Amino acid sequence: MKYGFSHRVRYLKSSAVRDILKVVNKGNVISFAGGLPDEELFPVEAVQQAFSKAIGSGNKALQYGETEGVSELREHLAHRMAEKGIHRSSDNILVTSGSQQAIDLFSRIMFNPGDIVLTENPTYLAALQVFESYEVDVVAVDSDDEGMLEADLEEKITQLKPKCIYVVPTFSNPGGKVWSLERRKKLLEMAKKYHVVIFEDDPYGDIQFDQETTPPPIASMDDNQFVLYTSTFSKTVVPAMRIGWIVGPHQIIRLMAQAKQASDLHTNSISQHALVHLLNDFDLDGHIQTIRNTYHERMLVMKGLLDEVKIDDLTYLTPKGGMFFWVNMPKHINTTELLTTAVDQGVAFVPGAPFYVSDPEQNTMRLNFTNATPDLIQLGMERLVKVINQHQYETIN
Amino acid sequence: MKYGFSHRVRYLKSSAVRDILKVVNKGNVISFAGGLPDEELFPVEAVQQAFSKAIGSGNKALQYGETEGVSELREHLAHRMAEKGIHRSSDNILVTSGSQQAIDLFSRIMFNPGDIVLTENPTYLAALQVFESYEVDVVAVDSDDEGMLEADLEEKITQLKPKCIYVVPTFSNPGGKVWSLERRKKLLEMAKKYHVVIFEDDPYGDIQFDQETTPPPIASMDDNQFVLYTSTFSKTVVPAMRIGWIVGPHQIIRLMAQAKQASDLHTNSISQHALVHLLNDFDLDGHIQTIRNTYHERMLVMKGLLDEVKIDDLTYLTPKGGMFFWVNMPKHINTTELLTTAVDQGVAFVPGAPFYVSDPEQNTMRLNFTNATPDLIQLGMERLVKVINQHQYETIN
Fold this sequence. Notes:
Aspartate Aminotransferase, domain 2; 2 domains; seven-stranded mixed beta sheet; four-stranded antiparallel beta sheet; Aspartate Aminotransferase, domain 1; pyridoxal phosphate binding (chains A, B); PLP-dependent aminotransferase family protein (chains A, B); 12 helices
């Protein structure tokens, strides 16, 4: 039978990143492709105890729960948000099945086909996929290493009347950059001036490498009118729990909860109760410091090896946190073509092109440094450099 | 600030059932309102062991997982489906965050605004909410206690060209009825003749009270072309895990997986791995038999008390399984009005009207018999009968 699907299936495609992951999980490939935390750092014992307590705490914890999330967890989240300068009561918080669901539910209640969303370029691939599935027109704003450029931002706001500006201002995926305080303030100022909602996606904010102060979240400068802020425990506890949250104006959060009720009733509440016990009993902030130190060390190992590559025009930004190097190769190198050879040689990365909203730069790549030990980073980078050099040689000759 | 929302927020409303639940969870009300399984029957020890094994089985189980679901779980599901006569390989199965998400993801890939879905009347409230949120026109087909009536079904298919027929043919919510074999066959025949997809929602199929054979699922008569079949572990293990699944034509399942990837990446995989261990180690079918026996006994207690109500024109169908009595009161009784008095008197139910697609019958109510002990059913029914008699008296005088 020939099925009649919705128009929106045109915009659904399997993520390039995840399709690559499927391939490289097989065999002997060292992967810098995924955005995976290192599972050796998972606090397994604490997670084990937290789940045991949650399941043993009474049968009510195993029953259907409230769509908004387990109230004790929302209280913990309100407290943790306040520590970041985001002072909101727990009824401005919705627990979601990972922060991916926060992007989806927000899109569901906000966007009609043809609405405009402004983003950085490149930006988070899976957010682009959600926006496109709601038939939104995504438009890139010119940016540099400090964030969006004011002139282009204002021009695009006034000309295109966007409904939302989506940003990952701290240790972005894929770019790895950090917006300056000034640019954060400027963005919020524009949002207020022209009445546009900012969606601040912050999955990596806790993964900071140096003692230097990272500028505060944009949401911390807002009086809970213009900024939605989302984050996740996937990078700091474990991804398999699928627990994220979103904080913002109550009217928006309430509509998102109603959309969530239709979507999946509520987030897995065994995991939510377990997280409450984990936050009560476990030194999560100490654990986060261990993650920071480990990833910082790995970043430096990869940086050292990148610095040894003897190719002109290879540039990158040294990440101050997060999980990724964003590498610009010489213009004549197409990283999508390079990937096939690389996988044959036992190393994987993500070509940069799919992360672009428009004008993809084919010579870019994203390298993850969190999911391999320093030894494997060494070996993988040796393989990668060999592939690049060989490609250089073949291209020149 | 005044926010601009999507058109679809018009169709989002908090479920009446869940709003009532919030009220009755407070205080001393005996609730026949919810669709909750009895938490005293939860296999807590087995769940505890299963989660402990899952978390201890290696850090990979706590990492990001595949959108389609944990492969061992899909193998188990394929096996369990085959036992119901639904023979499908595991790549025709998608694990979802409860069967609610299966309805949502299916709707997302199938429906454009203005598409038609045919349903029974009354039908599952939260499915109606999903369909409406996709701006679908839901149209009721005339039905009796055995299922949809052939003449009206064919007329509505040929006139309205629906994209889908949504049914809960076994121990339906709210009606509690079971479609006959003949009507199941007839529905599939119509679907084949006119190329319409059937969505068979079967959350209660396992909760059968007598030894008499229940007609097989409609999906078991299909060659995996016309029927999507969804079910859940919420009624047989625990709801808090939020694990459901959907089985159907690969092309549809694949698109739903892509929609799921954008929606929440994947279902909580700690719960999925735990379920694999539970299905390996625990006698789930024996446990389901205990649930059946307990609920059967409670149903009989409630039936006995309903039979004692001295009101003419009170009718109901004796449930052969599932969780609900669907009661028709005398025409002059409006159950929505009755509810306020009932809650004041310490008993709650769900008025029937919201379950109707059209022509709501205001004198209907749904009574859940699974979430209260026989003693509480006795006490609650005494309160309810008192409220009804009082209302009768007031209405007549």
